[in-house]
Amino acid sequence: MTPSKDVARLVEIMAALRDPVTGCPWDVEQDFATIAPYTIEEAYEVADAIERNDAVDLREELGDLLLQVVYHAQLATEAGLFDFGDVVDGITRKMIRRHPHVFGDAEARSAGSAKGHWERIKAAEKAERAALRETVATVALTADTPVPEAADQAGSGFLDGVPSGFPALTLALKIQQKAAKVGFDWDRPEPIVGKIVEEIDEVAEAAESGDRDALEGEIGDLLFSAVNLARYHEIDPESALRRCVRKFRGRFRHIEQELAATGRALETASLDEMEALWIAAKTRNQPAVS
């Protein structure tokens, strides 16, 4: 087996890895659920490479992410559900359908800007997915193969169209955005801030009670309210938190470097010493005041 720029070679490699006789024992044992965490991890590593402006890492991480797509497609092929070609066919159809102003004829290009056109496209896609879901369920039952949960238990509630696999902050944001479409939303920031203050008090009460389950629930409510405030101000909470983490890393690195300059390790410093260095790092990064 030789490397190739043709994606078909990657599909062949994955099929060989999954061969029950000659394949890799670890790969053969995997299923949709066990691979899913790696898929999410690889997507984050792509985002991290972009954030660091590292083109070399980005190239590698995009390959790792593509491997995840091929892996899931191979699992589906073995189960008789669909194959990699179906995945490619599906996304190309969607892109063409969603961009009639680019790929359509003159009439479609004109209609592309018409009111309600996007809604008609989405409705057609929903009907297509429903038909495919019935087919997949039939094949899966015939093959006695478990179907991935999303294809097997699609809900019909208003919020059920938001996939649950998003990171929690992003999921909270998308749920709130969808609820807001039907008016379930505040039109001012003050009630949201008030809710955050209320949730902080409830977190303190739960912590004092010693009830860990209640504490988890209250901390979740607090985070959900913080997401709501970010959404009101059109700030992506995931990006805001990542920015905070970058800032924390930088300041913590300053503590580490200052201690190392005196021949000391982090473990030898007291909390007071580290706090003083933290404040110094914070002050150092403050913009000058004229």
UniProtKB/TrEMBL annotation:
User: Matching Gene3D superfamilies, A to Z?
Assistant: MazG-like (1.10.287.1080)
Q: Which CDD domains does this one have?
A: NTP-PPase_MazG_Cterm (cd11529), NTP-PPase_MazG_Nterm (cd11528)
GO MF entry, a single one: ATP diphosphatase activity
For this chain's UniProt record, which GO biological process terms are given? dATP catabolic process; dGTP catabolic process; dTTP catabolic process; dUTP catabolic process; response to stress; TTP catabolic process; UTP catabolic process
Which top EC class is given? hydrolase
Annotated EC:
3.6.1.8
Q: Which reaction does it catalyse?
A: ATP + H2O = AMP + diphosphate + H(+)
Which residue ranges does the record assign to the NTP pyrophosphohydrolase MazG-like domain?
30-103, 193-254
Record-linked SUPFAM superfamilies: all-alpha NTP pyrophosphatases (SSF101386)
Q: Which residues cross the membrane?
A: none
Q: Which family does the record assign?
A: Belongs to the nucleoside triphosphate pyrophosphohydrolase family.
In Swiss-Prot or TrEMBL terms, this protein is called Nucleoside triphosphate pyrophosphohydrolase
User: Which species does the entry assign this protein to?
Assistant: Aurantimonas manganoxydans (strain ATCC BAA-1229 / DSM 21871 / SI85-9A1)
